[in-house]
Amino acid sequence: MRGRERVKRLGAGVRRAAALVVAAALLGAGCDVPGGGDDASDDGNRPNAAHGAPVLAFVRPVAREIVLADAAGRTWRGAKLTARADDVRWSPDGSALAWIDDEDDSPDGRRLHRLDIASGRERTTPCACRGVGFLGDAAATVNTSGDALLLYTADGRVRRAQLSTPVSPYARVAAGGRDAVTIADLLPEEKAGRGQFQMLAVDRSGTVRPFRPAGAPTAFSEGVQSPDGRRIGWSSHDSGGACWNVGNVRVAAYGQKGREEPERPAYVAMTRALLEDRLHVTGLAWAGEGLTATFGPMEGCQAVPPERFVSYYLRDGAWRYIGSGMLAVGYGAKGRAARLLAPERPRPENPDETYHPPLGDLEFTDGDGERRVIGTRVSSFVFTSAESAGAAVPEAAPQPARTGVARTTDRGEPVPAHLRALAQRIRDAAEDDDVAALRALCDHCDDETRAALRSAEGRRELVRLLSSHPGLKEGGIVFPGLAAHRCVDHPAQDITCTAAQIHDIALLDIPEADQDTYEGTVYEADFEQRLQLRTGSGGKALWVGRWAP
Predict the structure, then answer these.
(1) Measured distance CA(150)–CA(160) in Å, rounded
(2) Which of 79-88, 152-161, 213-222, 506-515 has the lowest mean pLDDT?
(3) Which end of the chain is more exposed for a tag (fewer CB within 10 A), N or C?
(4) What is the C-alpha to C-alpha distance for residues 160 and 100, in angstroms, rounded to an integer?
(5) Going by DSSP bridges, is the β-strand pair 197-203/208-210 parallel, antiparallel, or unpaired?
(6) Model confidence at 360: pLDDT above 50
(7) Element (H or E) spanning 268, and its range?
(8) In terms of Cα–Cα distance, which of 248, 222, 386, 223 is closest to 314?
(9) Within 10 A of 150 (CB to CB), how many other CB atoms are there?
(10) What is the pTM for the complete model shown?
(11) What gap in Å lies between CA 286 and CA 388, rounded to an integer?
(12) Each residue of 181-195: pLDDT tens digit?
């Protein structure tokens, strides 16, 4: 960490500590105490005749604002932000929003915010607390002492419910519920391992009940409440270090034993994004009776082309692929939908800029099926409970498939037409097991290549190679391009892997290469996976067999 950043964090820590003292005094005074000062929004932030009731809220951290949108996609600013917003939540009836300041972006200490939609009035209260979710119409959070649930009501008052069993200082409200909220309680590392939590249910009286089995460890990142308030879903990330996290999705119901722990999807879209060993859950939302979940790479640790973000719908333990290229996706009533689009290029690093999560354009689909972008540089969005409850099961998207030889190289250059035509003829013959045609096409090949064509396995391998993206080399092309040059799965490098290269690594099961030049994982195809086409005399395309550097 840079010295300047250490100084900034130290100053922020001192300011947070002072705010926590104020909050502790406020909340310890009694069961019902007034909330903090009112920060009334500008008149322009209030609902008016120009738009209808909001069905969606989204966060623009760089612009420091929360924006609301109605069913037609009309938008207006709901609140200004003095710090990044953690856990933006709708009340069950859609009349209020609640959020907490991000711990690392709160110069004056953390505050809990509650925005009344009808009046546009925002109430803020100093809060030594973590996580927020609605318990009925009250915004609920847990204090950092781990001994009380704090309930913030619409009239600006705070009620303190003593917990029947204290939780750890790092516990947080994970999601709300109709009759209880869920707390993710950090377990001792010596007992459960690094970053493991137990999930607890807490009702209005402060009575703590564990989800069954009691004390079962789970990783936890983000939680969401179902529209009916009876279930929660949460994303997990088992960590093996800063850049080695494996995410998944869990589901549990209040008052019922056990929880769903479905295996991550293992379909073509997922494997082609090369997301088996390192991935995050970048988006999670309820849609009707199921959850939408998006899996993606870790920004700052891996290459982040849009194709690496894959989205699914989970219901009753079964996954349905619904698309790629989104940081998150959600569904509302009457066909409405929101998609947070992954940017084509990663945001350039700026050491002087406060960290933000991945940002993208928010595309809204209205009830007539019309799509348009309603927000830029958006970090997250959330539909109201009524919208989420009215969502239909989303249509499954077809798995990605390649029907012909690639038209571009693994670095995006056009493949010469005459070489691509020859590659397509070779692939067609291999798929048809036409050995005679392959021998004729391979007249200029080396003996080892011609011998491989006689076996069914050799012909299948040929089809696989010609399903990858070639690279330009020495008057011709080489399949795969990674045989002619390598790439590194890390951002902002001179050879950062492209989406095409990520595809080829997964398709051909290319292993990690031994290297110490680049930060990140380097991939390079070995000698057995190299096929070369060249331009001969008179401009004729020739298959010359394996390429040897």
Answers:
(1) 5
(2) 213-222
(3) N
(4) 17
(5) antiparallel
(6) yes
(7) helix 268-272
(8) 248
(9) 23
(10) 0.84
(11) 6
(12) 999 999 998 888 888
